[in-house]
Amino acid sequence: MTATPAVHPLDHASPAPSPRPLPRAWPAVLMVAVFWAFHFVSTQVEFQMFYRFLAGMAVLTLVLITFLVWWLTRRTVSRRERWLAFGALVVGAVITVMLSHKSMGPMPIFGGVPWLLTGWAAWLLLTRHLPASARRPGLRESGMIAIPFLAFGTFLLLRMEGLRGDGNPQFHWRWSPTAEDQFLAAGPSGAGASITSPTTSSTTRSTALVLQPGDWPAFRGPGRDANVRGLRIATDWDAHPPKKLWSQHVGPAWSSIMVAGGRAYTQEQRGDTELVVCRDAETGSTLWTHDDAGRFEESLSGAGPRATPTFHNGLLYTLGARGTLNCLDAADGRPVWSHDIAADAQARVPDWGFCSSPLVVGGKVVVYAGGKSGKSLLAYDAATGNLAWSAPAGEWSYSSPHLATINGAEQVLFLSDRGVTAVDPSTGAVQWEHLMPGTAPRSVQPLPVGSNQVLANFGLDSPTALVEVPATSGAKPTEHWTSRNLKPSFNDFVVHNGYAYGFDGTMFSCVDLKDGSRKWKKGRYGAGQVLFLPDQPVLLVITEQGEAVLVAADPTQHTELGRFQAVTGKTWNHPAIAQGRLYVRSADEMACYELQPAK
Q1: Which is nearest to 151 in space by CA: 159, 163, 143, 141?
Q2: What is the SS3 assignment for 258?
Q3: Contact 582, 243 (CB under 8 A)
Q4: How many whole angstroms separate alpha carbon 305 and alpha carbon 365?
Q5: Phi-psi bin for 471: left (phi > 0), alpha (psi -120 to 50), beta?
Q6: Distances (CA, A) of 488 to 31, 174, 500
Q7: pLDDT value for 16
Q8: d(Cα 251, Cα 271) in Å, to the nearest integer?
Q9: 258, 219 in Cβ contact below 8 A?
Q10: Which H/E stretch holds residue 280?
Q11: Would the N or C end of the chain have less CB density within 10 A of its end CB?
Q12: Using CA atoms, how far apart are residues 269 and 367, in angstroms rounded to an integer?
């Protein structure tokens, strides 16, 4: 009988399962490459900041969704690994938003997702090409889980100090003190006592200050047009450089400087207090301050008031970011009257704060409140503070009222979300209106050109139009041309001999007023500002980085005549020139320079 051979137990064992194939990495790498290629190209070509942001968010969202769909449907990856990685993304994002600095807002998501996807793609590529002996169990899974926490968690270490003029964020270490913190810790040098006394009648005020020829009594100067008339300066700054007279640290604000009667005025934020500050124009030392309780701050542009004081007949008119309109004695800061324009207009505080620099005309103080029911523009009696009239002019704007003479009639021009509105300064009656549809915030004052034309901008990085106003009553204004060759966001432009000089995005540009064609575009000055000295003629540009640059007002070519570093810190504030001196301020510093006279 033949014996049955013994059978080893392993002979009937099931074959060992083959290892799961590694997922392909090239789709992930391709998707990430598409995003970074778009990001690079969008920063190199002329592209509106607002639409660049929207397009960037759209591309990022599309790449993220495509990546997640691809990852979650990979059968070569275990279901556990797929969903653990996705869960790490969600949990990492939520924790980061909850724990990040209050200034960051949604930035950890916008900023973290590109690095998350890049890290994932790089990790898949790396683990795929590791030798088999180095592929430890769970290695790829651990990396896919850790990368979201690293990509998002990095933003826990940062805080944001607003955006630059090109729309890119400014980051600092979370634990580092802000310039305002350092300023407050050091104590304002020479700060005067805060004055909060009760209303003082005009008959008991101290000796009134008097406006002198060559002073700078309002936002953008005497004509509110950034023109410095009656002054000729040395343009060879190598041989005759401006002489620094003084500098002072200041609290944050985008207010400009106003100079009258030997005093220099501005507005600042200091902690939870908003101040009007008066300094000696000769030395920079603080003579007095007036404070109002409250702090305005928003993540995109930072803290502080936005408007610039206005001087008239010995009085100072100031508007705070939350809507406090003050009338102060310019000599000592004592209050004369005060109003809450938000309450008077039944308006909410705009996202960017109240920004309208007061305009004094015909014994009235005109400001923009943005209220409904015809309460956009408000005019108060300059002496008593009583409301004189209100007028409709749109519901949101960053601009300031501008006094102009159009077809021989004095009018107050204002640029808002509706377009350009012209009102009678004595009654507030609307004289004409030119509708300009668009969604971008409007910041730049409309500029009169000739007897019946107005240069107006459509808003943030948007075109500029030359509007013609018919002399016939009731006839509608028309656009002579609209051009994308001049696209200021919140930056000045000036006009000379048929040409406009101003900011086209973050570069400087010259445009022909006949048809809006570009003559040149040079000078990367960021989101700066410009003054014009027509007696020479030269342009004095203040860059976003705080440099002062002298440029020839020449339509044939862009020529820099000189430059120097005037202040430190982000400089969105308008400069001022009074009595032959240049006053410049940033969010951190204020300085005065003696401009050498022309030989």
Answers
A1: 143
A2: strand
A3: no
A4: 18
A5: alpha
A6: 35, 32, 12
A7: 47
A8: 9
A9: yes
A10: strand 273-280
A11: N
A12: 21
Question: Distance between CA 367 and CA 398 in Å, rounded?
Answer: 11
**Dihedrals phi, psi of 521, to nearest 5 degrees:** -145, 105
What is the secondary structure of 191-246 as a DSSP string?
A: PPPB--PPP--GGG--PPP---TT-B-STTTTTTSSB-TT--B---TTTSPPEEEE
Q: What pLDDT score was predicted for residue 136? A: 65
Q: How far apart are CA 104 and CA 108, in angstroms?
A: 7
Q: Pick out the chain residues at pLDDT < 70.
A: 1-23, 46-50, 130-137, 188-206
Q: Specify whether the CB–CB gap between 256 and 586 falls below 8 A.
A: no
Instruction: Name residue 324's beta-bridge partners.
Output: 340
**C-alpha 269: how far from its chain's center?**
16
Instruction: Output the CA torsion 280→283→285→290 (10° steps).
Output: 20
pLDDT at 134: 52
Q: Determine if the peptide bond prior to 537 is cis (ω within 30°).
A: yes
Query: At residue 590, what is the residue type?
Result: M
Q: What is the pLDDT of residue 518?
A: 97
Burial 366-381 (b: 16+ CB within 10 A, else e): bbbbbbeeebbbbbbe
Overall size of the chain counted in residues: 599
pLDDT in tens, 129-181: 766 655 566 787 888 999 999 999 999 999 998 888 877 889 999 999 999 99
Q: Which residues contact 75 (CB under 8 A, 6 or more apart)?
A: none
Token look-up 């990001």 returns 39
What structural domains does the chain harbor? 26-160 (no CATH), 182-192+212-594 (2.140.10.10)
Is there a contact between 344 and 369 (Cβ–Cβ < 8 Å)?
Answer: yes
- Cα 83 from chain centre: 41
Q: Within 10 Å of residue 115's Cβ, how many Cβ atoms?
A: 17
